[in-house]
Design brief:
The protein has about 600 residues and is an alpha/beta fold. The chain folds into 3 domains: about 140 residues, Phosphohistidine domain (Glucose Oxidase, domain 1, 3-Layer(bba) Sandwich), CATH 3.50.30.10; about 110 residues, Enzyme I, Chain A, domain 2, CATH 1.10.274.10; about 270 residues, TIM Barrel (Alpha-Beta Barrel). It is built from 25 helices and 16 strands. The radius of gyration is 25 Å and the shape is globular. It binds phosphoenolpyruvate and magnesium ion. Phosphoenolpyruvate binds next to strand 10 and helix 19. The site of magnesium ion has 5 residues, from helix 19.
């Protein structure tokens, strides 16, 4: 395979328009910016003309009406599907929306400062934030979070793109620019086709990055203050491989990047041609390459890239894109379709992993000082037994589906930390099985697994093995917890590195312990899909990998170029190195020798 991709040398005037961030999802796109939450941009523009002030006040009133209609609809839906208590939050938001003091403040600001409604909302939010910053009262602090929500909703209705649709941007590829791309933005963006992502915060394993990778969207995170330099409609280039963003590119750089974009797409197509070849190493050792998916919409990509099954279904997106907790029937239908449509009808369904950077308002989850160390995943699910059991019951029933070949369904529990949790989880599954039996509802066999993503569980892994049917290593979280470096914070992304001596030693311990006791083990963190991560894991003895579908052809290509003995030698040497830098360099050199074709697709 002839690969002509060379990093683009950026020189001269281009330097001035260049911003550097963290490369999180490879690929190149030339398009126009769509800024989310323009409310948080410094909206200081020229003062409006007298006649425009009136128009702006009317636009604000219309946005208030639309936001009120949203909130009423949400209240009705949540009240009927979950309960009046959970729906109360939308009444509270409506009360803020109609609060005369708030409305007058915004209107007054538009009229007095002759500024846009967006800018006025920003000023008002700033004013309240300063005021509330002095309070120690948690209740009042929560009211600020509610106010922020209301303002963001209003801002959405005032935004040009939401009003006019993406067509307003001339049908060009859309590059989303945001402070942080939250999973809930997936809802907001609706049908807009997103071709690139740039965020101010977020690291390589933030959920924005994972979302981007799973859809093959080039993305750069950690570009400080980008929202101050770009506005919706501006031309922009994203180079997700080098971690570069080019603002207002000149025609020469646009042409150069368009060429790179074409080459990149061509390379991906070339690699995807191996989709029907078996996944095995150069000496014929079979491997399992599975897909991480966030919903049914990711299955065509999993199929097209040659995944052998779904190794991780992150069900939180089903909850996040739903106005309330999905009913048992809704979940059952979703899991059934997932099993029916997944490659070889093989699916690992992970129970709700909420908290950390993903919140669901209707579960009463509120901001915590240390959300990643707090009320997250099964810790939260245990406190909502009615919802938790609903999910487990839905999975058990979905597993009864008849397919050819027979379905293989696995239930996966995230964030398991101590043995007692695993015992409690098994008891919960047994209770659900008994309930279904008593109700005469069909259910199928499921294997029960734990995600190992907390260092305590990794170190103590042997104590868990008789309680689980298999182990799935969640390296994204495991790395952040081992390195005490937030996976979403670009300031510490140099520490949140899977190729660090400490991480490799823990992974080695985990893989070795599972293999020795004959317990199936897989890894479903992002490192499985990076050439360097994959090579090291293969060398440590791992044979099952789950990754964003876009990376499967690449990993298959690398696997076919290396023998198990070569990989083992690389891993053994890497485990002796003392710094992450040495490891990264050494493994990159090895890949250059073994399979130079794939190095271009590794993000720096
Ligand atoms: C992980 O932590 O490695 C993982 C796969 O789960 P998530 O990225 O959804 O936290
Ligand atoms: Mg995780």
């Amino acid at each position: 395979m002839e690969l002509a991709l060379e990093p683009l040398r950026v020189q001269g005037s281009l330097q001035r328009m260049l911003r550097r961030g963290v490369a999180v999802s490879p690929g190149v796109v030339v398009g126009v910016a769509y800024c989310i939450h323009e409310i948080f941009v410094d909206a200081s523009g020229k003062p409006l003309r007298g006649e425009d002030v009136h128009r702006e006040l009317e636009a604000f009133d219309r946005a208030v009406e639309k936001a009120a209609a949203d909130l009423r609809a949400l209240h009705a839906k949540v009240a009927s599907q979950v309960g009046p208590r959970e729906a109360e939050i939308f009444h509270a938001h409506e009360a803020i929306l109609h609060d005369p003091a708030f409305l007058n403040k915004v209107r007054d600001c538009i009229a007095r400062h002759r500024c846009t409604a967006q800018a006025a909302l920003q000023r008002v939010l700033k004013e309240y934030t300063t005021l509330f910053a002095r309070t120690k009262d948690d209740f009042l602090k929560e009211r600020l979070a509610d106010l922020r929500d209301v303002i963001v909703r209003l801002s959405g209705h005032l935004s040009r793109v939401i009003k006019e649709g993406p067509g307003a941007l001339g049908g060009e590829p859309l590059v989303v620019v945001a402070d942080e791309l939250l999973p809930s933005h997936v809802i907001t963006l609706g049908d807009c086709e997103v071709s690139g992502i740039v965020t101010q915060s977020g690291g390589p394993t933030s959920h924005a990055a994972i979302l981007a990778r799973s859809r093959g969207i080039p993305a750069v995170t950690g570009v400080r203050d980008i929202l101050r330099q770009v506005k919706t409609g501006d031309r922009i280039i994203v180079d997700g491989r080098e971690g570069l963003v080019v603002l207002a590119p000149d025609p020469e750089s646009e042409a150069a990047y368009r060429k790179l974009q074409r080459e990149f797409v061509h390379l991906q197509h070339q690699l995807a041609e191996n989709r029907d070849q078996p996944a095995k190493t150069a000496d014929g050792t079979p491997l399992e390459l599975l897909a991480n998916v966030n919903g049914l919409g990711d299955l065509p990509a999993a199929e097209a890239m040659g995944a052998q099954g779904v190794g991780l279904y992150r069900t939180e997106y089903l909850f996040l894109t739903h106005p309330s907790v999905p009913s048992e029937e809704e979940q059952l239908e979703n899991y059934r379709r997932m099993i029916l449509q997944a490659p070889q009808h093989r699916v690992t369904i992970r129970t709700l992993d909420i908290g950390g950077d993903k919140t669901i308002p209707y579960l009463g989850h509120r901001g915590e000082a240390n959300p990643f160390l707090g009320w997250r995943s099964i810790r939260l699910s245990f406190e909502h037994p009615e919802f938790f059991q609903r999910q487990i019951r839905a999975v058990l029933q979905a597993a009864a589906i008849q397919t050819t070949p027979p379905a293989r369904v696995q239930l996966l529990f995230p964030m398991v930390t101590i043995v007692e949790e695993m015992q409690r989880l098994r008891a919960l599954v047994r209770r659900c099985q008994r309930q279904l039996q008593a109700e005469g509802k069909p259910q199928g066999p499921v294997q029960i697994g734990m995600m190992v993503e907390v260092p305590a569980a990794a170190i103590n892994i042997d104590a868990f093995l008789n309680l689980v049917d298999y182990v799935s290593i969640g390296s994204n979280d495991l790395v952040q917890y081992l390195m005490a470096a937030d996976r979403d914070n670009p300031k510490v992304s140099h520490l949140c590195q899977p190729l660090s001596p400490a991480v490799l030693r823990v992974l080695h311990h985990l893989i070795r312990t599972c293999l020795r006791s004959g317990k199936p083990v897989t890894l479903c963190g992002e490192m499985a899909g990076s050439p360097r991560g994959f090579l090291l894991l293969l060398g440590m003895g791992l044979r099952s990998f789950s990754m964003s579908p876009a990376f499967i052809p690449l990993v298959k290509k690398l696997a076919s170029s290396v023998t198990v003995a070569q990989a083992a030698q690389v891993a053994q040497h890497a485990l002796e190195l003392r710094t992450a830098r040495q490891i990264r360099r050494f493994v990159a050199q090895q890949i250059h020798q073994l399979c130079p074709d794939v190095e271009i697709l590794d993000v720096e």
